[in-house]
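Marked as duplicate of an earlier ticket. Keeping the data here for the record.
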Amino acid sequence: MLGAVRDGTATSRSELCAVTGLSRSTVTGLVLDLVGAGALVEIARGGADRPGRPTRRLQLAPRSDLVVAVDFGHSHCRVGVVDARGEVLAERNDSFDVDASADRALDHARRVIAALTEQVDRTRISGGAVGVPAPVDARTGAVGPGNVLPRWIDRRPAQELQAATGVAFDVDNDANLGALAEAAYGVARGVADLIYVKASTGIGAGLMLGGRIHHGVTGRAGEIGHVPVDPSGPICRCGNRGCLETAASVGQVLLAMQPRHGEELSLADVIELVKQSDPGAVRVISDAGAAIGRVLADVVNNLNPEMLVLGGELAAAGEPFRSAVRQSVERYAQPGIARELRIELGALAGRSELIGAAALALSAAEHRHRADANLSGSVRS
């Protein structure tokens, strides 16, 4: 509900009913709770020139929260300071071998946070969140065991950044944060059931079911990058053979292009070749999309979402990538499910995971604000 008011999708109780599908009485009760907690305000819109009962316009309470967002990929560290509208006020994105050392990566993020928060009023910072390219146990905030991010196993990045910066941090898997971002600020606003795919150095999916991120018991829901697609394929970093990441990740795209273009070719070069309709580049990107779509077809068959959002570095290839995913999903998914499925490119220009971390931090800050308001009310009473 707060997200719908924040992005302008709903500005009244009746519009909230339409957007959320909740009953009038449920929406009224929740609105009163949010107004009482200081998260929403209702402004009368009646007047002499508007006969009848005055209507009320909903808007966010005039709070000035800023949050710190940290997005760790396997090969980058991106940090931003973001406001409640999802606007990035300060940002830095560094190439960084995050897999090599949790200590160095977290210390790097700490230094960047310190530099960026000097550019804003630090007293406005109400929290932060960090995304990592590995399963995160939602119960403990710890990076789970396995070979996806082995030097991070059992580390608790939110707790460590909180201790280092004095800012209250939360943590989640990066693909889950991408789903949050696209639902709150991007192409999936108003969508309650969606799959967000981050196709980059690694491949993962964020699952939003009924408006909530589905983590699974140990945080491993959506780990599609390690679904075997070729039993005789190369060994994956997870220890299995022929996983999706060995067929469709950024590394595999570059490897396929190197015989013709050399080892210095970057993904940005490949994307530019795709835009120029280079047949080799289009074929490689399409092959990656087709492989990802084949795995996603099984996920779609089981979850029957409304939307599939494509993000990550490979999604920058645009329509050739999206078309390949769609064709593969349509071929392998149940026709009735595929027919109703919308497949879209992410709308946040490669920032989905960063903006998603901000959305998580803002939500946590709102919960803390409500808890503090409730505690203050209890003490006064």
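See parent ticket for discussion. The longest helix spans residues 352-380.
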